[in-house]
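Recap from last week: sequence in, structure out.
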Amino acid sequence: MAKISTYTIDATPQLDDKVIGTDVNDSNITKNYTIESIVAMLSTATVSLNAYASDAAAGAAGVVAGQLWQTTAGHSLGVAGIVMVKQ
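Predicted structure tokens:
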């Protein structure tokens, strides 16, 4: 098998095209996944963000520039759940 970097790039992937991956819930075996199945999974995925009262508090907790966090009710905006980007 050639190095993966030597394969041509498909500029117009289709939903029924396949990609290779590892199934960590099935003894790490290699499987094929369709792009359609990945898109479906992503459309139902949820993200859980830690909440902080300020950008400084987020930084003190280890959030680095560019990462997302959400506000608490104690934030200066006065509203919990606003998604922020660490500055």
